[in-house]
Amino acid sequence: MKIEELKTPCYLVEEEKLKKNLKVLQYVMEETECHILLAQKAFSMYHSYPLLGEYLSGTTASGLYEAKLGAEEMGKENHVFSGAYREDEFEEIAELCDHIVFNSIGQLLKFQETARAKGKSIGIRINPECSTQEGHAIYDPCAPGSRLGITLEQLEKVAKQEILAEREYTAEQVETAIENLLAGVEGLHFHTLCEQNSDDLKTTLEAVEEKFGFLLRKMKWLNMGGGHHITRKDYDVELLISCIRHMQETYGLEIYLEPGEAVALNAGLLVTRVLDITENGGIKNVILDTSAACHMPDVLEMPYRPPLRDSGEPEEKAYTYRLGGPTCLAGDVIGDYSFDKELTIGQTLVFEDMAIYSMVKNNTFNGMKLPDIVWKSGEDCRIVKEFGYEDFKMRL
């Protein structure tokens, strides 16, 4: 099947572009002997897992269902972090996952014996309180009041409760109490980045070393989380390698990275068609058969303007249109784009970089049909998943 024959809307993931990303990640692993895991929260198209498994060390999950998917479909290393685990799910999670990361001392104390009894490696997520991104506060785990990760102050508070007999605490006493508190913990985990370069990782590592260096010397591994845009054209891969080697050589740590976007960055398309064109107040509105609210929620949530093939910024080209979906939500607007020629009803448009945070976040608001999922190998397109009315009804 050729792309022109596909029903719209559909997500189309390109094998060759995935391979291009995977080879960059493979290079980092070969140069450093680090482990790179797929963060399934960004990209969970398990049809691609056999290919990804040829290059990556495994998967990482945010809970039971992702852990099951990684175990069933890739079957390699399987890590998990959750803001809090459910009692009725933890036993199964501990069966499925190799590394289990806790978000608080309370969760660690509650579940560590179960994890240890199953021979799992236990970690805690730390919060170095080092924000390196501008805007998009919704994606900043180091924002003030964040619920994600344990700060040094929180660790010290719990540790001091263990040495109440002392009126004054020396720094050494507090550090020893923290080490005792974390006696069964083998690794530290932080995730502070969002679509960022390795200079921000370097800044973050400096904060991690300053606050948690005494703990790093006691650990077996360090997980640097995700948000590393490793496969972006301007990403400084050599600086990333230098950062990894520094942590390995200074602390004797095994290093893990868990990018999501970098695995499938620019490897997917969302193909859509023009249903209607209207005009109001001098603005030409194009109604597509796809929806920002349903099929690319980050457009509204982040927000951002997705790249559209053969288009320009508003007024850059001869004809400017506002593109939106067919739902009843007034704000279901993808953005303003300009074109060399006037758009026509029935015309196909192609949004780019649509493999990530699309399939994993889409929904059926307003009874919208979920887009088909298509795998493109060479010039051949194959539908690997189709959706219909029952997929809408079964969720209600």
Radius of gyration: 23 Å
| Mass-distribution shape | elongated
Query: Structural class of the secondary structure composition?
Result: alpha/beta
Helical segment count: 13
Give the terminus-to-terminus CA distance: 34 Å
Q: What is the helix fraction of residues, given as a range?
A: 25-40%
Mean of residue pLDDT values: 96
Largest sheet: 8 strands, mixed
Low-pLDDT parts are: none
**In sequence order, what are the helices and strands, one letter per element?**
EHEHEHEHEHEHHEHEHEHEEHHEEEEEH
What fraction strand? 15-25%
Instruction: Let me know the number of strands.
Output: 16
Task: Give an overview in words.
The chain is α/β, with parallel strands linked by helices and 396 residues long. Helix content is 32%, strand content 22%. It contains 13 helices and 16 strands. It has helices at residues 15-32, 49-53, 64-73, 87-96, 105-117, 152-160, 171-181, 198-216, 237-251, 261-264, 292-295, 298-301, 389-393; strands at residues 10-14, 35-39, 58-61, 77-81, 99-102, 121-125, 187-189, 221-223, 254-257, 268-280, 283-288, 319-324, 333-339, 348-352, 372-377, 380-385. The strands form two sheets. Strands 1, 10, 11, 12, 13, 14, 15 and 16 form an eight-stranded mixed sheet that branches. An eight-stranded parallel barrel has the order 2-3-4-5-6-7-8-9, surrounded by five helices. Strand 8 (221-223), helix 9 and strand 9 form a beta-alpha-beta unit. The mean pLDDT is 96.
